């Protein structure tokens, strides 16, 4: 039985970050074992090192505690996540850049390969890294009138192979190529048409309820059989990054610290501010 009452377990009270902030909240329903993981870094949930570290720790803990399902959502009804925090890119101090990219790799490996069934409750816009988080889940419910996509080329940057694989595994190679090369952001309605999302929701409550309904499909399925099947299907994709992490990190550092990319990012950030 899925009860609406959510019980906040000890782990949800934990402050995962070294900052005195909770950027990720975890609430586990003790009737169902389903965890709701809420990103809460206003205004746009951009993914900085601290948020990624918290998310990574939360995913590890939910793996260890054998969560029966994970719903990933935003605390805002406007933006699911604006993707990677562009300020992390302009801080070209190599130590932090390395930690930042390594934390992103960790989050993706843990989320993409999580034993629990995962749903992205996309209750807001989801560009770039926000779209990556959504694509890493097994099912996507999205609010109407929002946008989603891997728009990296619009910033003058190249989406890494594992970003591309995450999309390709959902919508296929042809559409992934078109989407990434043009940096296309899809509306919710367009995203449904191409299978980038699975369902449209009216509002966040509706999205959470649809996410819970998806997880109910697994009530009578053996968790072992389910997670092993997921592992067989996703294992190669995960392993392709696990085996190349160092090279991927080097490619990121080389690319992002290049003068050309830095200039482009500056222009992009200014255009975001002017867009107001
Ligand atoms: C060759 C080998 C390959 C090697 C690999 C190399 C490189 C790849 C590296 C990385 C891949 C990159 C992934 C990313 O995720 S990059 C981030 C891309 N994100 C975006 O483009 C989103 C930009 N934001 C928006 O479109 C909008 O903000 C929004 C999300 C639609 C929300 O709109 P809204 O109107 O609600 O808010 P504002 O636009 O007013 O924004 C409020 C506030 O937030 C700031 N902000 C927005 N997005 C970001 C961000 N991603 N990072 C940091 N800050 C962000 C915005 O500037 C405003 O700030 P202000 O101070 O003006 O209030």
Automatic annotation (TrEMBL):
Entries under SUPFAM superfamilies matching the protein: ClpP/crotonase
Listed GO MF terms: delta(3)-delta(2)-enoyl-CoA isomerase activity
Subunit structure of this chain's protein: Homotrimer.
Pathway membership, UniProt: Lipid metabolism; fatty acid beta-oxidation
Matches recorded under Gene3D superfamilies: 2-enoyl-CoA Hydratase, Chain A, domain 1, 6.10.250.170
Pfam families (UniProt xref): ECH_1 (PF00378)
Entry's localization field: Mitochondrion matrix
Reactions listed under catalytic activity: (3Z)-octenoyl-CoA = (2E)-octenoyl-CoA; (3Z)-decenoyl-CoA = (2E)-decenoyl-CoA; (3Z)-dodecenoyl-CoA = (2E)-dodecenoyl-CoA; (2E)-tetradecenoyl-CoA = (3Z)-tetradecenoyl-CoA
The protein, known as: Enoyl-CoA delta isomerase 1, mitochondrial
InterPro entries recorded: ClpP/crotonase-like_dom_sf (IPR029045), Enoyl-CoA_hydra/iso (IPR001753)
GO BP terms: fatty acid metabolic process
Task of the protein: Key enzyme of fatty acid beta-oxidation. Able to isomerize both 3-cis (3Z) and 3-trans (3E) double bonds into the 2-trans (2E) form in a range of enoyl-CoA species, with a preference for (3Z)-enoyl-CoAs over (3E)-enoyl-CoAs. The catalytic efficiency of this enzyme is not affected by the fatty acyl chain length.
Main location: mitochondrion
UniProt source species: Cryptolaemus montrouzieri
Lineage: Eukaryota, Metazoa, Ecdysozoa, Arthropoda, Hexapoda
């Amino acid at each position: 039985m899925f009860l609406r009452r959510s019980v906040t377990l000890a782990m949800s009270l934990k402050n995962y970050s070294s900052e005195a902030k909770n950027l990720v909240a975890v609430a586990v329903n003790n009737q169902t074992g389903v965890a709701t993981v809420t990103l809460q870094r206003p205004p746009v949930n951009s993914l900085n090192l601290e948020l990624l570290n918290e998310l990574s720790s939360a995913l590890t803990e939910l793996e260890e505690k054998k969560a029966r399902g994970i719903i990933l959502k935003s605390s805002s009804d406007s933006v699911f996540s604006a993707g990677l925090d562009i300020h992390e890119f302009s801080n070209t101090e190599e130590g932090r850049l390395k930690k930042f990219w390594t934390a992103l790799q960790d989050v993706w490996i843990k989320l993409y390969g999580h034993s629990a069934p995962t749903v992205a409750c996309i209750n807001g816009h989801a560009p770039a890294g926000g779209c990556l988080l959504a694509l890493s889940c097994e099912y996507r419910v999205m609010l109407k009138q929002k946008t989603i996509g891997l728009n990296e080329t619009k910033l003058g940057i190249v989406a890494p192979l594992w970003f591309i694989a995450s999309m390709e595994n959902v919508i296929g190679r042809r559409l992934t190529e078109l989407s990434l090369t043009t940096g296309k952001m899809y509306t919710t309605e367009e995203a449904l048409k191409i299978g980038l999302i699975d369902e449209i929701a009216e509002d966040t409550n509706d999205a959470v309820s649809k996410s819970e309904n998806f997880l109910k499909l697994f009530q009578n399925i053996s968790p072992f059989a389910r997670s092993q099947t997921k592992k067989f299907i996703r294992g190669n994709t995960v392993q392709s990054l696990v085996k190349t992490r160092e090279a991927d990190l080097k490619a990121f550092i080389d690319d992002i610290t290049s003068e050309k990319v830095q200039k482009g990012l500056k222009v992009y950030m200014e255009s975001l501010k002017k867009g107001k």
